[in-house]
Amino acid sequence: MYVAAHSKKDGYGIYELSFDHQKKAIVQFPSKKQSSDTLTGFDLINGGKTVIFNGTYDGEPGIFFYDVDKKTLTKVVSGGVDKEGQWAPFYSLSPDGTKIVFGNIARDKDTVKNDVYVADVTGGGLSQAIRIMENVKMPAVISLMAHWSDDSGKLYIKMPASTGDTNLIDKIQEFVF
Hints:
With 177 residues, the chain is mainly β. The protein folds into two domains: 1-85; 90-177. 2% of the residues lie in helices and 63% in strands. The protein contains one helix and 16 strands. The chain has one helix at 142-145, and strands spanning 2-7, 11-17, 23-28, 38-45, 50-57, 60-67, 72-78, 80-82, 85-87, 91-93, 99-108, 111-122, 125-136, 146-148, 154-160, 169-176. Strands 4-5-6-7 form a four-stranded antiparallel β-sheet, with no helix packed on it. The two termini are 31 Å apart.
């Protein structure tokens, strides 16, 4: 089992827990800016050799790939800072681990909107990122609004009702890959 947690001995990171109560650090966050570092979600791909996570690492917000064997970190999508504070993009990984959908904030005056992208997951990064939605108002982050088909061939994104009531779902946007 894998968890994101803080260990008194090893600090903040992603840990593998075994049934005999042992823990092994998979990703450790640097301690110098630990108070500002966050981890929102993570996934393991490539047989556990790569960790994808979003949050703030060493003071930098974004989506990151961590190579467990080489112990190298790559930021693949940047977050940002605005008048409301620092933000990191959210993502949803396809069931087969080959595609990722992520959202980035696109401000329209004082209104927060999102640009939504899909990219292929390749080795330790992303390729062929395409914007599939532009300047859309979403009631929640993409990881809550996006759903993949079991075969990873389709992506469904719930969209709010045209009345502006974010509690109603007006349509499901479908993307085929």
